[in-house]
Amino acid sequence: MKSLYERLLPAPVNGGFRMEGYWIWCGSVIQGEDGRFHMFASRWPQSIPFHPGWLVASEVVRAVSDTPEGPYVFQEVVLPPRGAEYWDGRVTHNPHIVRHNGEYVLYYMGTTHPLPDAAPGEPLEMGDPRVIVARSNKRVGVAVSPSVFGPWQRLDQPVMPARPGKFDSFLTSNPAPCIHQDGSVLLIYKARRYEGNLHGNMTIGAAWAPHCQGPYRVMQEGPVFPVGFHLEDPFVWRSENGYELIAKDMDGNLCGEKHGGIHALSPNGLDWRLAPQPKAYSRTVRWQDGRVATMGSFERPFLLFQNGRPTHLFAATADGPGGFAQARNTWNMVVPLAEED
Asked: Is the pTM of this model over 0.85?
């Protein structure tokens, strides 16, 4: 059987989703009740820097296409700002859309801060007070709707709060849910530990809940991946032998490429090992016009499943030589997958 990496086909040049005047990131796609394909994505204005602009100005939006490949056309803002007094009142990011028993469940990261908005053209760096406060307030939440068109019911509290003294005491983000047939959820998420005025390295946690709205219980005291697994951007799904996961390899010592993707397997969502072919994807992309290009970024992987099989890999991508400061454009691209042998 071919590995996921071996099934990657050339990417459509004009596929995916982009918007003039906006940074686009975090694409998550589902087929709606109308039969069309709906992408939930993050956007924020290009009048402020890509990074760390997302921490103070991102919002979750919806775009639509008649086919999985796109191009996707903007439709609406799904999770707009709703006031600094809410836990997700200033920023929504990291959308991940799921459907279960006729209900749409939108996982995301939200944050807030009580300071003024960044003005167009204003310098914005990691030491900016707005960025510092917003980063420390990052939490995973859930919104639900009977329709892909909304309305969306947002919760007044995050489903994954930070836990004092634990590996996720500083922040939680990057939700990767797997909803089971009975409605229970395995949630893989990114976390950092609070360490005084600093924070620890990125780690990956696992939580379980009887229902998408919780309550969520962290399944073990420490991160679920062994030492040496420096990862972010997980995506997880149920398979016949347990669970499978793809994620961004921060150092490249697992899949052989820095910021490439790993493929890992687990019988229970807690004990993970690399797949026999550990490389899931690469920053180097084959395009349908014959070009081969190494993208500046290839992150936030999301697999679209149709009839129980993955058919398309979506990723947030950027032009340039690499590094967020070098990007001039970002968009959500799509890579079709060849059928399994």
From this structure: yes
Distance CA 139, CA 98 (A): 19
> Tell me, what amino acid is at 18?
R
Any residues with CB less than 8 A from the CB of 39 and at least 6 apart, and which?
Answer: 17, 27, 28, 29, 62, 63, 64, 65, 70, 72, 314, 332
Contact assessment for residue 144 and residue 106, using Cβ atoms and an 8 Å cutoff: yes
Residue 341 has pLDDT above 90, yes or no: no
**Sequence letter at residue 232:** E
Q: What does the block give as tokens for 266?
A: 């687990």
Cα torsion 332, 335, 336, 338 to 10°: value is: -160
Helices then strands, counting H and E runs in the chain, come out as 2, 23
Task: Tell me if residue 325 falls in helix, strand or coil.
Answer: helix
Instruction: Give the pLDDT confidence of 281-321 residue by residue, as tens digits.
Output: 999 999 999 999 999 999 999 999 999 999 999 999 999 99
